[in-house]
Amino acid sequence: MNTSAWENDPTGRHQYRWWDGEQWTDQVADDGVQKVDPLSHSEAKLPRTGHQHPPSAPSLTHGPPGGELSAGSSSVPPDPLSMLASRWRRVSAELIVIVIEVTLSLLLEILSVIPILIWSLIVFSRGQSPGKQLLKMRVVRLDNHRSATWGLMALRHLVLKMEVVFVLNFIEMSDDYEELSSTDIAVFAILVFLSLWALANFIVFLSTENKQAIWDKMLNTVVISDPDGIFDPRRR
Fold it and tell me: Is the pTM of this model over 0.70?
């Protein structure tokens, strides 16, 4: 299992570079002082050296990136921007939830959004949704470098989940499109709006440097890869 750690810089430009569990990041350290040294795409995929515990930097061995460190200093939260989850990983999380919902609907013949909603309400307090929990990601606030609260996660995700609810309601109420009521038309209009909203967010998500959708920018959050649970609020 890959774990995040300070390791010898594979580029040779610095003493140590932060491995986030999946790839090399821009966070580096020399003589206990952290800096930022951007990597090219190919450099980020360089193989690990295997030296996971640099003997000359005890404070860096266990402490993630986040500021100046010296021997005996305590660990500080890393910079979330150095741990951003990949776009494909985030899309995969959404696809996994869709597969689960479809499977539940076909096999158990139940309203699949209900168990997903219950699951979400449980893990929101950890800054996660069901898909993010399965792929070890977390939503983190940029203003305080802490995982998003339950309320923030509910605001962030339940708005999106409403689209699923409207789809289900619309399908149920409109078996015959020639007999649409005014309520059906109103629901359809809301569905169209939410679909356009989701599309706009996806376009912004693909085009921004920090992989933020519109709701991320509104709430000042980013989605990080957190395989070691560094930002898990239960560890604080």
Answer: no
